[in-house]
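REVIEWER CHECKLIST
Item 1: Sequence provided? yes
Item 2: Single chain? yes
Item 3: Sequence as submitted:
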Amino acid sequence: MAELTTPMDIDGDDNNPSLKPNNKGKNVAVSGPSHGKATPWVEKYRPQSLADVAAHRDIVDTIDRLTSENRLPHLLLYGPPGTGKTSTILAVARKLYGAHYHNMILELNASDDRGIDVVRQQIQDFASTQSFSFGIDNAKASVKVVLLDEADAMTKDAQFALRRVIEKYTKNTRFSLICNHVNKIIPALQSRCTRFRFAPLDSFHVTERLKHVIEAEGLDVSESGLAAVVRLSNGDMRKALNILQSTHMASQNITEEAVYLCTGNPLPKDIEQISHWLLNESFTESFKRISDMKTRKGLALVDIVREVTMFVFKIKMPPDVRVLLINDLADIEYRLSFGCNDKLQLGSIIASFTKARSALVAAAK
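Item 4: Structure as written out by the authors:
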């Protein structure tokens, strides 16, 4: 594909906002490791092409083939944060339009007004305006892209208005909707798009991408430190890169302990100790010791609950007791997310384990 060299003057026309480069939403890295040290690694190492996307090769290859054949449909990409949804669409735009793709894409996310007026004015104006750019194949130059990131934040009225806009301007515009919760997108919009689910990245792909960054930045990372970053990221590549960068800023040697201290998460050995108290000590003693550790190490109770829940899966106990205990912990985590009192919820945790311990004793008899 030929490179864009001389965009027409109309592309920079200040009197026509629909033809101006759109810089809203997430900033986009133009090149990889050439960025300065102050650049967040999330943007510095954002994939620049579809081949660079870390995972979901089946989805990426399908979109790549549709793009090459000029059969790109309207897209609805959904799944947890940091799984490559936005990067995939931006890579598609670069493939279609080259380095000056900003002239051919309107990018909006939840930081912008997402009401019905935006659909009727900004999006419709952009979609209805014909764009011409030298250096782009005519078939591709006639099609622009509207990227609606975090589309599940759109109001219902805006989504209903978008239905008609999508139908009306299908000949010259492709709409790409990105969201975390697909159930918040009305069925009428879902039916107009080809849906792809981006699942959380598996540890292998996160590890491989982090190794690339570690090598490029010349970092000193231990195997346990890398494993800790991967574990705490929970399949979120953005979170993994942020943890790696923040830990590097705090410590030259990235170890497991440095990662946990930087993120404020309880160390595995602390969780083992807390679990031991919960299973063996009295209510008063457990409450006192856990409160002391929580205050001394600055731990959040919700993080303790989350880690203890994972530890419960490693403990040998009857399945019915495990299910009841995990359900209790899930209820406590839910209440903590709404700002319930920490002391009351800590008491609930200890009470849940006391009940489970009684059930274990009864089962042993």
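Item 5: Key structural point noted by reviewer: The first helix runs from residue 41 to 44.
Item 6: Recommendation: ____
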